Hints:
By secondary structure, the protein is of the alpha/beta class. Helices cover 43% and strands 20% of the residues. Strands 2-7-1-8-9 form a five-stranded parallel β-sheet, sandwiched between helices. Strands 4-3-6-5 form a four-stranded mixed β-sheet. Helix 6 (139-148) runs antiparallel to helix 7. Residues 39, 43, 74, 76, 78, 83-85, 104-105, 108 line the site of guanosine-5'-monophosphate.
Amino acid sequence: MNNRTKPLFLVMSAPSGCGKSTLIDMLLQEYHDLVYSISCTTRAPRGEEEDGLDYHFLAKQRFEELIGENAFIEYAKVHDNYYGTLKAPIEEVLAEGNSMVLDIDVQGAAKVREYVRSLPNNDPLKIGYVDIFILPPSMEELRRRLEGRGTDSREVIERRMANAEGEIARADEYMFKVTNDDLGVAYKRLCDLIDAMSGRM
Ligand code: 5GP
């Protein structure tokens, strides 16, 4: 993507274990005008997490002020903590001619889609909007990958599998679906989609 191409507002979702983070990291390394959207949250930082890098860590009161100001394109309360995506950074990135990528779950993506639908046709967020769902090759392979990580308890794996089924059931809401069978093939397909949608040769 460069100045002669259309800035994209790219929304990506996938069940846990489908390689979405890896694919997004690969895209960010290749497309230097692609900016990763950093969410806001009221939960405390964990481990090595850094403010402004992993999340914008906000006090609950500040988050609620921002809700009141209609500053979020979408937000959700998860286990007593708020999570949300600010509108302003997306608008700024697109206005500069760059593209923004959101890594967001199916419910968040549905809210973003609804918001984009409400915008006038000449709004850059609507013009550049693309959403992509990353699919596992099969449920058996997804289970194998989750178990292969060796980090999660049986209970966590079962919960992820159940969540994955619910998310995959909504994959048709997305403009494009990419199956991550082979990482290189899935990445190539993603690049082709992005190049086509942004008008890059
Ligand atoms: P964690 O606390 O483990 O980083 O994230 C908990 C949950 O919050 C995950 O399911 C994650 O997808 C979700 N989440 C992270 N950022 C956002 C966001 O900007 N909006 C919404 N709706 N959910 C988010």
